[in-house]
Amino acid sequence: MLDIKKVQAGLDSSAPEFTCIYYPSLESTNTTAWELYTKSKSTGIVVVTDDQQSGRGRSSNKWYSQPEKSLTFSVLFTPEIKADQAGLLPLAAGIAIVRTLAKLNIKVRLKWPNDILLGGKKLGGILCESRVLLDWISAVVLGIGLNINDEIEIYPAAIKTAVTSLKKESNREFDRERILVTILNELIVLIRYIESRNYQEIQTQWLRQGMYLGSIVSMDTANGTIVGKFQGINQHGEALVENQGLISSINSAEMRAFRET
Ligand code: BTN
To answer: What is the dihedral of CA 55, 56, 57, 63, to 10 degrees?
Structure first.
């Protein structure tokens, strides 16, 4: 069982606004976080569970996790960020994860907008949901799922070849509390960059770890598919894809790479 007191005690004193709430089991940490917000306008809350039964992924996908092996949590907060910068939040969460795992000598890469990949397989994902009032974000739930000590063999056949866990890649168990604390401490610093309008810092850090930069990619958007060269991200966190000298800024899509340059 995850030791939530250890997590709470490990938070930097510069991040006192996070209060961790542990649930042995729930449907989805994102859903519970929104319930807390709706009921009591709670903010600065980290909802953590050891057994997420109906994890939600992007594009209405299901998110699988193994009880007491994965990390599944959601951070509910009310940042002072304009709505058109919301796309930087999942990128910041990805950077926080990269920085955390680098401290354990594990190098992961980020696939726009928010996949965490290790050795070309999916190690984690981020589901960022925001509510907006008069052009400003009124509340955000940043949900993170990371495969830590998971035995990937137990996952459904359709996904187990595409995903991995830290344990599978390195044949040892990891301290989930330590990883969670470090992600939260890193995240708060990155959110402050966005609040202070230092968007460049997020862009620069993301581009260091971003996959497929300079590659030909196909972006499946709600309005069709765009193919072109992935040129990076702008200060809103949108992907920049160039085709015949024309650059499209894309805020939501599934990226596929034809070939990596
Ligand atoms: C994705 O890659 O599709 C995003 C997956 C996000 C999963 C996490 S697990 C914790 C939080 N609660 C949820 O229901 N989903 C997110």
So the answer is: 20
Mean pLDDT of 92-98: 98
Ligand 1 atom at minimal distance to the Cα of residue 70:
9
Cβ atoms of residues 240 and 247 within 8 Å: yes
CA dihedral 14, 102, 111, 259 (to 10 degrees): 160
Task: Locate the ligand 1 atom nearest the alpha carbon of residue 73 and give its number.
Answer: 10
pLDDT in tens, 114-164: 899 999 999 999 999 999 999 999 999 999 999 999 999 999 998 999 999
Closest residue by Cα to atom 16, ligand 1, is: 143
Integer Cα distance of 239 and 247 in angstroms? 10
CB atoms within 10 A of CB 81: 19
- Ligand 1 centre from 191 Cα, in Å? 19
What's this model's pTM, rounded to 2 decimal places?
0.96
For the CA of 56, the closest atom of ligand 1 is 14
Strand pairing class (62-63; 55-56): antiparallel
